[in-house]
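Final report, Chapter 2: Outcomes

The project's central promise was a pipeline that accepts a single protein chain and returns its three-dimensional structure in a standardized token representation, suitable for archiving and comparison. That pipeline is now operational. To close this chapter, we reproduce one record exactly as it appears in the project archive, with the input sequence first and the structure output second.
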Amino acid sequence: MACAFGAAVSFQAAGQAYPVKPIRALLALGGGGETLARLVGQKVSESLGQPLLIEAQPAATGSIAANTVARAAPDGYTILYAATNSQIYRPFLAKNVPYDPIKDFTPITTLSEAVLVVVVGPSSPIRSMKDLVEQARKDKGQMFYGTSGVGTTHHLSAELLQGVAGIKMVHVPYKDAPQVATEVMTGRVPVGWSIFGTMYQPHMAGKVRIIAINNTKRFGRAQDIPTIGEQVPGYEPPPGWNGWFGPAGLPRPIVLRLNAEINKAVMAPDLQDKINALGFIPTPSTPEQLAEAVKLGLQRTAKLVKAAGIKPE
């Protein structure tokens, strides 16, 4: 009993003293997600009194960053900012993923939901998802679509669309969202699946055309653009949240300290316009809510992948 009490006091003291040195924050995503992490990270650094050292490692859909954190010491000095790409979808869509999304991580908080989009080139005859489906049928499996990688929300979304619409397309995975934008602008790939934050300015400049929002609801900043579900009956977008994790076994006081500071930062009044412009909707949560989101996301994805007959690449 005395030992248990001593351990509890030790953990509590650790939480109160934490942090006493800089925190390494690995990002399993880039683009607008990296910008959001840096905005929030600056606030968190100020409130914690120690710098959050941001390291963007979006390669392999963030799985390298995720694996590094999964293998780190659970002391609160190595944490992960990741999305559903690495924590939910990659284990189903890619082979040989080296970590377990549940067993190898401690959920800290959900940060936001990403607004996702489907884009085409400015001179494309495709002006809607109905046009895209019809063109894919005419192309008989030869329509190419670009995403920021195997195992991303975009990859799964396109696979689900093919199942619902009864079409076939060819996946072209790129390094990141800006590269997808470039390829669509130049016409090297006719369709791109990406995030709003990367594609909205090119859309407004007439360099690409957003034909659909890949979320359950229209986005306030672009109310005139319909969702995929509005245009393709039966389509339901997969979750597109992002959040913070630590290694498995992260002490509860440290989890709660990080949770409080990150949630306060993402809801800071002076960040709301910037976050909205990036195409994100703040969704701070408890650690338990993020844990449940991971669990339900894995269960739902397993069913979707099985029903669609999707094989790992």
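Archive annotation: The two ends are 51 Å apart (CA to CA).
This record, like all others produced under the grant, will remain available to the consortium after the project formally closes.
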